[in-house]
Design brief:
Strand content: 15-25%
Low-confidence stretches: none
Order of helices and strands: HEEHHHEEEHEEHHH
Helix content: 40-55%
Mean pLDDT: 89
Radius of gyration: 27 Å
Structural class: alpha+beta
């Protein structure tokens, strides 16, 4: 009876864990550091476009999916977590079934034995490809804006309302207003002070 109750409690715990991971859109994994055996949840495999039975449950599956440019950095983060017990939160790319790369944010936590050796590590993987693509588009738009602003005869500026400060002003400000951009950064009201009182 007690064995049955323990099994039922474990089943319910696993169901809660699976439900929480599913609702968070996270692919969970559990790595036996000694043997290399790694349990990847069906959603983890689905992030890369695979069905549950299509990928082996071994750490090599993850290693082979890593982007070559990210491998050294990611392995260094794992070592740092093992040796210094620092938080393991890292972003990297993994190759999907269609040949493309998926950006992932990964949180993990190791378990150490009595001798201080890491024996197990588990965590969650979230697909952040859409976020990364948006950030890339924003950077491209910013670069185009600043390129145009630097060459334009018009004045372009970016300002913050609270607290009030000028974030950027283009070089034409000095020609039109007669003050350097550095002066405007120091005093955000400088441009207003140069305007005739009746026009303010």
């Amino acid at each position: 009876s007690s064995r049955h109750q323990a099994a039922e409690a474990l089943r319910r715990s696993e169901e809660r864990y699976a439900l929480a991971a599913s609702s968070a859109r996270a692919g969970v994994w559990d790595w036996d550091v000694v043997s290399g055996e790694t349990l990847f949840s069906p959603h983890w495999k689905a992030l890369l476009g695979y069905d549950d039975a299509e990928l082996p449950n071994h750490v090599r599956t993850w290693e082979e999916a890593l982007h070559p440019d990210d491998r050294e950095r990611v392995f260094a983060e794992v070592r740092r977590h093992f040796e210094q017990r620092t938080p393991y939160v890292v972003e990297y790319r993994m190759r999907a079934r269609d040949g493309g790369w998926r950006w992932c944010m990964v949180h993990g936590q190791a378990v150490w034995d009595a001798a201080g050796r890491p024996v197990r590590m588990a965590g969650a993987t979230i697909d952040i490809t859409g976020q990364k693509e948006s950030e890339h588009r924003i950077r491209e738009l910013e670069e185009r804006f600043f390129r145009y602003a630097e060459q334009s005869s018009e004045v372009f500026w970016l300002a913050q309302v609270e607290p009030e400060r000028v974030l950027y002003v283009s070089p034409s400000f000095e020609r039109i207003w007669g003050h350097s951009p550095a002066a405007l950064y120091a005093d955000p009201h400088l441009w207003l002070a140069t305007i005739a009182a009746d026009d303010r």
